[in-house]
C-alpha cells in the first residue's frame, strides 16, 4: 500500500510542473493595483487612443490568445460629445481587440437622430478612426480621442460636472432713443 501511495505522489510531483506551466493567456487587472497595465495602456498597445474608453474603468480582462476583452465600470456611463453625439456604455463592454481593430463590440451605443445604434466595430486607418454600426459607418480624426471623456459630462467637465458657459455681458448702459 505504501508503494502505491509513493507512486501516486511521484506522478503528482512529475505532473505538477505541467499544471503550473499551462497557465491561461488571460490578463485580468483591477484599477489602481499598480502592477498590471491599465485598460488605457492596453488600448495604446494595440495602436488606439485612450479616449475610446471613458474615465473610470474599474477592471478588465483580456485573453491575449484570441483578443477577447471585457472592461467594467461601477455602472452604466453616458455623455454627449460636441453636443451632437450621445454615447452610452453599459457597465460591462466586450469585444475582440487586435492591432488597429476592435470587432464584435457589445455594450457601446450611439444615438443617431431618434435611434440608439450599437457600435459594433472600430478600425484605425492611419490618422482616422472608422466607427461602424453595422449598416453604416463614419470616420473621425484620431486626435479627437486623445482625451478620455467622463461619464455624465463627456469632455466638457469641471470637477465631474458639465462646464457651464458664462456669457460675457456688456456692462455699458443700453442706448435709449430720445
UniProtKB/TrEMBL annotation:
According to the lineage, what is the superkingdom?
A: Eukaryota
| UniProt-listed InterPro entries | At5g01610-like (IPR036758), DUF538 (IPR007493)
Keywords per UniProt: Signal
Report any Pfam family annotated for this entry: DUF538
Q: Does the keyword Signal apply?
A: yes
Question: Which Gene3D superfamilies does the entry link to?
Answer: At5g01610-like
Q: Which SUPFAM superfamilies match?
A: At5g01610-like
Instruction: Please tell me whether the keyword Signal is annotated for this protein.
Output: yes
Signal peptide span: 1-21
Q: What is this protein called?
A: DUF538 domain-containing protein
Q: Which species is listed as the source?
A: Morus notabilis
